[in-house]
């Protein structure tokens, strides 16, 4: 194929589990990779550099917008108790609908949690796993941190602007508040568990990355995940 073909990014929607999920796809490599964005994120806002620069001869890269995020609206985003499991099923079913038999997951933040659950629940489909800024439980300290970002008017312009442009200020503000409520529900359980019990079920090669200055996710979360996924790095 001409170089033009190999670098272009396809943007499309496909019906999965009763919703129309938006995704972007690029590259023609034999190793398929799904990029999973974080809270309120989309393929475009969270993975612009990866869609542009990942090796397109080695990889076929798909970045998705989870339901209610990015261009996967409608439906509006909501946060039932099983929203991470729902996203994990949507993500895996999306890749199967796109005819990928086996694929790797690169997830950050909420997308990292979604990727952990998907790798545990669908082990035959997941090739490799990379997560960063992920957590398998919610502590009281986390609840304090999350409540600190509840009001989007206090966010820095740099972080706020692309999301306001994508969602409009009303949907953005409401969805952020709903996310804080949804994630804090996990802390009401005695152990604050999101997916701790699933980590030992992850059998694929796993790489955990953590930013030392991550303002939202204390480093103990990354260490916990590393300790409980056998052979992870």
TrEMBL record:
Question: Where is each AB hydrolase-1 domain found?
Answer: 32-145
Q: GO molecular function terms here? A: serine hydrolase activity
Keyword annotations for this protein?
A: Hydrolase
InterPro entries the UniProt entry points to: AB_hydrolase_1, AB_hydrolase_fold
The organism sits in which domain of life?
Answer: Eukaryota
- Keyword hit for Hydrolase: yes
The record's listing under Pfam families reads: Abhydrolase_1 (PF00561)
Q: Spell out the protein name for this chain.
A: BPHL hydrolase
Lineage at the top is:
Eukaryota, Metazoa, Chordata, Craniata, Vertebrata
This chain is encoded by the gene named Bphl
């Amino acid at each position: 194929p001409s170089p033009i073909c190999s670098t272009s990014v396809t943007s499309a929607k496909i019906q999965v589990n009763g919703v129309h999920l938006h995704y972007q796809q690029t590259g023609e490599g034999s190793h398929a990779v799904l990029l999973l964005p974080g809270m309120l994120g989309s393929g475009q806002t969270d993975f612009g550099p990866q869609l542009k620069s990942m090796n397109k001869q080695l990889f076929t890269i798909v970045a998705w917008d989870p339901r209610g995020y990015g261009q996967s609206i409608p439906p509006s985003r909501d946060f039932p108790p099983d929203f991470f499991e729902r996203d994990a099923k949507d993500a895996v079913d999306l890749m199967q609908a796109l005819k990928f038999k086996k694929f790797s997951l690169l997830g950050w933040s909420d997308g990292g949690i979604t990727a952990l659950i998907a790798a545990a629940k669908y082990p035959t489909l997941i090739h490799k796993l990379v997560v960063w800024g992920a957590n398998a439980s919610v502590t009281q300290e986390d609840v304090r941190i999350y409540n600190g970002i509840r009001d989007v008017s206090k966010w820095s312009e740099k972080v706020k602007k692309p999301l306001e442009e994508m969602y409009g200020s009303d949907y953005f503000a409401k969805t952020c508040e709903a996310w804080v409520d949804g994630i804090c529900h996990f802390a009401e359980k005695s152990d604050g568990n999101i997916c701790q019990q699933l980590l030992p079920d992850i059998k694929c090669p796993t790489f955990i990355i953590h930013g030392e200055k991550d303002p939202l996710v204390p480093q103990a979360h990354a260490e916990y995940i590393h300790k409980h996924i056998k052979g992870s790095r």
